Amino acid sequence: MLFDLLGVPPQALFAQLLLGLINGSFYALLSLGLALIFGMLNIINFAHGALYMMGAFVAWMMLHYLGIPFWPALILSPIIVAAFGMVLERTMLARLYHLDHLYGLLLTFGLALLIEGLFRQLYGVSGRVYPTPDILRGGQNLGFMFLPNYRAFVVVAALVVCFGVWYFIERTRIGSYLRAGTENPELLQAFGVNVPRMITLTYGLGVALAAFTGVLAAPIYQVHPLMGFHIIIIVFAVVVVGGLGSMLGAIVTGLMLGVVEGFTRLFYPEASATVIFIIMAIVLLLRPQGLFGRR
Amino acid sequence: MSLSRTMLFAAAASFVMLGAANAEEGPVRIGVMSDMSGLYADLSGPGSVEAAQMAIEDFGGELFGHPIEVVQADHQNRADLASTVAREWFDDDGVDAIFDVPNSSAALAVQELAREREKFFFISGAATSRLSGDSCSPTGVHWMYDTYSLANGTGRALVAEGADTWFFLTADYAFGHSLEEDTGAVVEGAGGEVMGAVRHPLDTQDFSSYLLQAQASGAEIIGLANAGTDTTNSIRQAAEFGIVEAGQRLAGLLLFITDVHALGLDTAQDLVLTTGFYWDRDDQTRDFAARFEERMGMRPTMIHAGVYSSALHFFKALEEAGTKEADAVMQQVRDIPVDLFGEEAMVREDGRMVHDMYLVRVKSPDESEGDWDYYEILRTIPGDEAFRPMEEGDCPHLTN
């Protein structure tokens, strides 16, 4: 009855729901990293998209030059990119913590342009092919759609990692130090915790999440220098809608907006690039702290 | 006796006039405008600037006693920016002609401006057939290919094979709309049926939603009316979702050799496409491709070949006309036969450059003998058949 009203067969709706969740899991992983970095470091990390792209490229380079396959790369690439991120944090970002947000934003924006420009110079914009790992080739016929195994894996991996990070921050002792560090770093330092190192590691974790997402994305999209540039703006909107610094908000909003985008592609595809920003504008008007933000 | 003296006099007078015109003309300056860093940067972009540079060198580097100059700009796929740059170039920077301009929306904007300012516009990058149709210009030349010839080549070939139900996946701007419309007309004209279309924003990453809609339509052919990474992503994701295995076929209506290179032959093999240039056609194209690769590290696309050959043709026309005056130069542009890497072609009244197109099939990895050995030429489509007849284009300056 409802389906008749919408003029779309239920199969199409289920299929778009599932696809939306898949895309949403990329948004969730990326916005979680952003929210983590913002929550702990107070830095609006505009380089997040570039680091996501680096994650994909490092995996591609490993395969192409060294023959290292997908699974080791899924672990190694985030570690390498995180190390790179931590060097950035120590040498540059750390000098900006006492200044206004704007400086961090400008610096990371500049870094993003530099990193993307460098890869564009080296590899052009057509992108490189990253093959789907053999074990995840093919797919399942669900009746209403054909679900590629790899995409199913992406959703599961994203949910597991998102939950893991959330649990780590909210439910473990180290996580409680992190949260304490954002509330009152001087006091925490007085208790003998090395706060600057903790902040560096947190930035590293956020960057590792971005790079991990990049490796996950590599077999689906072409690995290309602008892939981060495309997604970062959407992810910022996700973080704003979810509430700045709210990790649970980032995860839930990421998935939710992925689904909304999927349905838009079915009902009014021309608007699919803008629908997330329309929602962002409405949320900012009615609930400026975001859906999950506390004030 | 007296006749020959008069003739001698007339010849001398025209020689003096020609000389005077020459001395008055300032340096010839051309502008290459393209997407220098976005999704079309590899198939056009910096390679087009290099191609223009090669044309200048091959021509001898000078016209009217001054070195030929080239400037470049990035329009970032924005029609407003393209129009601003073109205005600056024409009004302040003394640019005489603009080349390339991929992205049909941007090219349509530049075409308007070039018409107003009576400056030259040689289009190699943009595809919409409107550029020699309802948006044609007396000073605009559409060089390498257009949506009509692509539709005609690939569309007709596939319908002839019996694939007569189509669904389009269309980039939502001037180019995609043109390509969808032109191909739809060919399909229906040949007795086929268009079952629907879905329009996606330019520069989309994830095509799965659109692909599933195309699949649900049940059409035999999914026509990809998009370009660049939009096309390569569509093709890759169609493979991922088992669309080809399930029996539907993809038709890349505009595929460049850089796209095939990026896809890899594993994914791209057996795609049928139409192109205006293939580097491995004969010795002359191979020679150009080798020189281009030395500079750019890649083989030229049909756009790069188009910028090169159109710039050379423009210089010849200027030299012959002895002036930059629009009517005189355009007369020469149309009168001098176009030398398209040894193939003779011509420019029509409506600005359409008419030459042979090639229907090609992408080789399988086994058939390919190495990097960039990608196409088997199935058929050479003669120019008269490939391009839209002039009277069907509704070009305003012809009817008025």
Features:
heterodimer, A: 295 residues, mainly alpha, ABC transporter involved in vitamin B12 uptake, BtuC, two-stranded antiparallel sheet, B: 400 residues, alpha/beta, Rossmann fold, 2 domains, 5-stranded parallel beta sheet, 4-stranded parallel beta sheet, 17 strands, 45% helix, 20% strand, globular
Give structural notes.
The complex is a heterodimer of chains A (295) and B (400). With 295 residues, chain A is mostly helical. Chain A has a single domain (12-131, 148-286), classed as ABC transporter involved in vitamin B12 uptake, BtuC (Orthogonal Bundle). Chain A has twelve helices and two strands, in the order αααααββααααααα. In chain A, strands 1-2 form a two-stranded antiparallel sheet. In chain A, helix 2 (10-41) runs parallel beside helix 6, helix 2 packs antiparallel against helix 9 and helix 3 packs across helix 4 (70-91). The radius of gyration of chain A is 19 Å and the shape is globular. Chain B has 400 residues and is of the alpha/beta class. Chain B folds into two domains: 8-145 and 282-355, Response regulator (Rossmann fold), CATH 3.40.50; 148-275 and 357-386, Rossmann fold, CATH 3.40.50. Helix content of chain B is 45%, strand content 20%. Chain B has helices spanning 2-24, 45-59, 79-91, 104-117, 147-160, 174-189, 208-217, 229-240, 257-263, 265-268, 283-296, 302-321, 326-335, 383-386, 396-399, and strands spanning 29-34, 62-63, 66-67, 69-74, 97-100, 120-123, 140-142, 165-171, 193-200, 221-225, 249-252, 272-275, 338-340, 343-347, 353-354, 357-362, 375-381. In chain B, the strands form five sheets. In chain B, strands 4-1-5-6-7 form a five-stranded parallel sheet, sandwiched between helices. In chain B, a hairpin with a 2-residue loop joins strand 2 (62-63) and strand 3. In chain B, helix 3 runs parallel beside helix 4 (104-117), helix 8 (229-240) runs parallel beside helix 9 and helix 12 (302-321) packs across helix 13. The longest helix of chain B has 23 residues, at 2-24. The interface between A and B is large, with 38 and 40 residues.
